[in-house]
Each structure stands twice: as structure tokens, then as C-alpha cells.
Design a protein that fits this description.
Blueprint lengths: L3 E2 L16 E9 L2 E10 L6 E6 L5 E3 L1 E5 L2 E10 L2 E12 L2 E8 L4 E9 L29 H10 L13 E5 L10 H15 L3 E5 L7 H4 L4 E5 L12 H16 L3 E5 L7 E2 L21 E2 L2 H7 L3 E15 L11 E3 L5 E3 L3 E9 L10 E6 L6 H4 L13 E8 L2 E6 L11 H15 L19
Parallel strand pairs: 1-5, 11-12, 11-13, 13-14, 14-23
Antiparallel strand pairs: 2-3, 2-10, 3-4, 4-5, 6-7, 7-8, 8-9, 9-10, 15-16, 17-20, 17-21, 18-19, 21-22, 22-23
Helix pairs in contact: 1-2
């Protein structure tokens, strides 16, 4: 595994570092669940230094250490799927153990837990279940949004829907995440509920249980909304027949003329390494390709038209290209100029921005509404994306897909709670859902090929 070198700026003497010397197992926890790290603090000849090992990241050699009020503070930058992660680790002696706290990405992500003497049982990279790395917390998902988030979302709701429902509509929100669990899921579910309540466009049932997906139960709904589902969220690991039944009911529902709305990590489902497979290790000194793996439910993957390959971490600011200013789902992102022509307003967004590989997302299968304006991205931000990059750098952010007689609306943004507090974004999602329900007439013919991106 490649070791990442850090600047040599240690100001700690070996005698000062004595309580921390040796090998340690760090069992830290975050909103993504538990993680085990290996730590070795070396106090031999020369400056004190350390190494941090992990199953999901290259080994880091740390030489920027300081002693602050009896705590050993390590500063280093790790690498996760090509993204640099600045980290501050603080170690506090607790008898024969340590208290560990970690702050990453300038405080955006926190981990903490105990450290015990000895090396971890294993820090080798395991055979991945998918390309995402850390999985979400075990046990029940959090299902309650923060009050402040709810209040801010409610204040941003659009006043009315763009279309009058042709009949009373009912939406089933599925929020089960079998992989990474986004903290924004409870807010996303309540956002769909609130959009329907305020405008009268639909009523909503929210479920975190995939068992609700049966042919009989789905008959009462007009659309399903996937609130950042991840992994094989519909499957029953104990029953292949139950899994097959749910998958069939889901696909038949959409193909039979109903609707599907998908936000953010709904595109991070059913892809990766097939069960039981072990990817070949990359050549020594090289980074493995980051390509999203293989489709694990091909007909689903084709319907969604794209699955997660890699993302720029939140917060990355991007310019958004409004590809179809005259489209009713894009109305909130446009205005009419003095000549009476509808034009796109300048639009930038801060979020965790997904990329899809060249085989999983195909422009010819979708009517693209918005996309990443790649030409406007700084070169240093573009360079963070690991190989293999799409040669066309064509990354859609929202689009429509026809599946049989059904309608699919996909919005790739939605990682952070802030997305659900912006009126234009909420109006965009509202219109997209009314298209999926069949109430908003909208062009869903596939888009023409994107113009080549000029590299800068």
C-alpha cells in the first residue's frame, strides 16, 4: 500500500512522547459507523514520528506532531479515493489507554473513541462490497430530522405546484439505506411530504422498511421516491425469493405507467463488486481505478441511468449548466429577459457532487435538465477526480428517463441538508415529481450528444 509522506515539522521530544510510544488500536466512531485504525508512535533516534494505517486508505507517515496541554496532536493529510482529507488527530492519555478525537476536512467530519495498546488484528484492505468505502451505522437508521432543518425547509417551500393534479396522488417515500447512511435522509423524506401537503400535489407515506414493496401494496401509489437509498436496499439477504419478488414488483410498478423520483444516493445503489468476488490488487505503487464497479441489478441500473463512481467531497462549489431553459422542470432556474426570451440565470451550488462512469450513465438514454458545467471548474478541483475519468466530462445533475410506460426523475444533488432549504431547488424537485406522477407534461425525449468540453 502506498505511504503518503507529510512535512517534517515535529516539535515533540522523545521523552515527551513516552506515554504515547508504541503500537495502538484506535476504535473510533462517526455518523458513518465504527472504524478501526492502527497507530504507531516512534520515539527512537531523530524527531518523533507516527504512522496511521487503515483498511480503506493508504498508510500515512506523520511527522507533524505537537504536544499541547499534555495531548499529542498529529496533523496529516490522508487519501480517500483520490480525495485529500486534511486531518487533526488528538490523543489524550487515559491510564494505559488513550482517548482519541479526529477532526477532518476543517471540522466538517468528526470521529472519536478509545485507543488501546497493541496492533489491530488486521489493517489489510478487505474485499469491498462496493466502491464507496465506509458503510453507514449498523442498527436502525436515524429517522428524525432536526427541528431547525425542518423549519428552514418549511420556510423555503414554493407557494404552489406548476400543474393541477389530474386526480388525487399518493407517493411512497423509501428511505432504507443498506450502505452509507446520509444524515439528510430524514429531511429529504419530510421535504417530499411537505411539498405535497403545501401545494396539494400529493399525499405521502414514508417507510424505512423495504418489505412495503409488494405488488399488492404498491397498487395504492402513483410514484415512489428514493431518499438517498444506498446499497442493495430492497433485498432480503435471507431470502432470494423475497428479493426477486420485491425487485419484480418495483420494476413492474414503474414500467406499468407509474413514476419514480430519485435523489442523490438513490444513484448509489446496486453496483460494485459481485458477491464473493475479490478484485485483483493494483500494481505496486499505483492507485486502484475508481470506476463504480459493475451493475448488480442491470435492469434497475439502466432505468436509473447512472450509478456512483466518485464524488467531490462536500463542500465543493460548482457551476450548474441549465441545459434546457424552456423546460417546465427548470422554470425556477430561469427568467424572462426584456425580449421575452426565457434564459438561464447564473447558478452555482455547494454540495457533494457525484460522477458516473461512461458506461453507467449515457446521455442518449436521458433528457438532461441540468449538468455540471465542467469547463468552469478550477483545474485543481478537476484534478482531484481519480482515473478513469470520462473523456467527455459529461456529468448530469438532473434528468428524465422513460421506462416502459413509466416516468423517472433523477436529481443527483441532495447530500447536504442545505439543498432542501433553497426554494429554487425545492421548486425543481416539486416539478420533477409532478412529471413522474404524470401531472406535468414535459419533454422527456433523449438529449443530443454533449458538445466536447474544452480543457483549461
Amino acid at each position: 500500500m502506498v505511504a503518503l509522506l507529510q512535512p517534517a515539522t515535529s516539535s515533540v521530544a522523545p521523552a515527551q512522547a513516552a506515554p504515547f510510544a508504541g503500537d495502538w488500536t484506535l476504535n473510533v466512531t462517526s455518523q458513518m459507523g465504527p472504524t478501526t485504525l492502527g497507530l504507531t508512535v516512534l520515539t527512537g533516534d531523530g524527531p518523533v514520528r507516527a504512522t496511521v494505517t487503515s483498511a480503506s486508505q493508504p498508510t500515512v507517515n506523520v511527522s507533524d506532531l505537537a504536544l499541547v496541554n499534555g495531548n499529542l496532536v498529529l496533523k496529516y493529510t490522508s487519501d480517500y479515493q483520490g480525495q485529500p482529507i486534511p486531518t487533526v488527530m488528538t490523543l489524550t492519555p487515559k491510564g494505559q489507554a488513550l482517548a482519541v478525537s479526529m477532526s477532518m476536512l476543517d471540522g466538517q467530519f468528526e470521529m472519536s473513541g478509545p485507543g488501546t495498546k497493541g496492533k489491530p488484528t488486521s489493517t489489510a484492505r478487505p474485499a469491498p462490497a462496493g466502491p464507496r468505502g465506509p458503510q453507514g451505522p449498523r442498527g436502525p437508521q436515524p429517522q428524525v430530522a432536526r427541528v431547525a432543518d425542518l423549519m428552514q425547509m418549511m420556510a423555503a417551500l414554493p407557494e404552489s405546484a406548476p400543474a393541477v393534479p389530474k386526480m388525487p396522488r399518493r407517493v411512497l417515500v423509501l428511505a432504507k439505506a443498506a450502505g452509507f447512511v446520509h444524515t439528510s435522509i430524514p429531511l429529504a423524506t419530510r421535504t417530499i411530504e411537505a411539498l405535497g401537503q403545501k401545494t396539494g400535489a400529493w399525499t405521502t407515506v414514508i417507510s424505512y422498511d423495504p418489505a412495503v414493496v409488494t405488488t399488492e401494496n404498491l397498487q395504492q401509489y402513483d410514484a415512489i421516491f428514493l431518499a438517498s437509498t444506498t446499497g442493495s436496499y430492497l433485498d432480503d439477504p435471507a431470502s432470494e425469493s423475497v428479493t426477486a419478488s420485491r425487485r419484480k414488483a418495483f420494476m413492474d410498478f414503474v414500467r406499468g405507467g407509474k413514476g419514480l423520483g430519485v435523489i442523490h444516493a438513490g444513484t448509489d445503489s446496486y453496483h460494485g463488486s459481485p458477491p464473493g468476488s475479490i478484485p485483483a490488487p493494483p500494481p505496486a505503487g499505483t492507485r486502484p481505478p475508481v470506476d463504480g464497479g459493475s451493475p448488480l441489478w442491470p435492469e434497475y441500473n439502466l432505468m436509473i441511468n447512472g450509478y456512483f463512481k466518485w464524488h467531490w467531497f462536500y463542500p465543493t462549489q460548482i457551476a450548474v449548466k441549465i441545459e434546457d431553459p424552456n423546460h417546465p422542470i427548470n422554470a425556477a432556474f430561469t427568467s424572462v429577459n426584456a425580449s421575452g426570451v426565457r434564459v438561464a440565470r447564473p447558478f452555482s451550488m455547494v454540495d457533494e457532487v457525484y460522477t458516473f462512469n461512461a458506461t453507467s450513465w449515457v446521455r442518449a438514454r436521458a433528457h438532461v435538465l441540468t449538468s455540471l458545467d465542467y469547463a468552469k471548474m478550477p483545474a485543481e478541483v478537476k484534478a482531484l477526480e481519480p482515473a478513469p475519468q470520462r473523456t467527455d466530462h459529461d456529468y448530469a445533475l438532473s434528468y428524465l428517463v422513460r421506462e416502459g410506460q413509466g416516468r423517472v426523475f433523477v436529481e443527483v444533488l441532495g447530500h447536504d441538508e442545505s439543498i432542501y432549504k433553497q426554494t429554487p431547488m425545492l421548486a425543481h424537485i416539486l416539478a420533477g415529481m409532478q412529471y413522474a406522477l404524470g401531472d406535468l407534461e414535459a419533454d422527456d425525449t433523449p438529449s443530443p450528444a454533449a458538445a466536447p468540453t474544452v480543457q483549461k
